[in-house]
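ok so i was messing around last nite and threw this chain in just to see what happens. nothing serious, just curious
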Amino acid sequence: MKASMFADAFEHTSSNGKGERMPKWRTMLTAAPIAVVVLLGLAAPAQAADPDGDVKPLACVEEHSYASISNKGQTHFRLGPGYQNYNGTSSTATVTLTATVGGTVSWSASTSLAVKGSVLVVEAEGTLGLNLSTSLTASVTNSIRVTARAKTTVYGDYGVWRQKVYGNYGILYPSCNSQSAWVTSYLPARVGWNVWGG
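result:
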C-alpha cells in the first residue's frame, strides 16, 4: 500500500511545460500560498489612516471633556448701572441700595473651540464641589441694606457672581481626530451684590 501511495504522489503533470515528472505535493504547495493571500485580502477590515499614518476606525462617538481644573475665584458681572447711597449723618447708619435693572447672565469661555457649557458646568462642579449653572437670572427691584459710617458713601453693583475656572478642554470628533486647549471659563454661581465703601 505504501508503494502505491508513493507512486501516486509522483503522477505525471505537464504544469512545468517540460514534460518532467513533478510530484503532486509540489503542485499543491505552490498553489497554497496564493489561496492564503486571496483569503487574507478578503478578510481585511476597512480602516482609514490619518495624516500621520496611524490606522483608525472609520467613525468615533463625539466626546467632550474638561480636566485638570483649578479654581480662580469669583468675578462679578454687573447688570445695569452702578448704585450708591450717602450717609450724611454724624453717626453710623444703615443705607439701602435698590436695583432697577435685572437680566440673565450666561456662561462664557475664552477659546476658539466649540465648547459646551453643560460640560464646563458638570466637570467644574464635580472637581470644585460648587453649585454652578449655565445661566442665572437676576430679578428687578432687589435691595440690600448696608451699614455706612458717618459722612461716607456706599457703592454697589447688582448682578451675578460667576466662578472663574481654568482647565484643559478636549474634543474627540466623529472623524476620530481630536483637539484640546487650555480654557478659562466663567460659570454663573449666584445672584447678588458687589458692595464697597461706607
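not much to say yet. Confidence is low (pLDDT under 50) at residues 1-15, 20-46.
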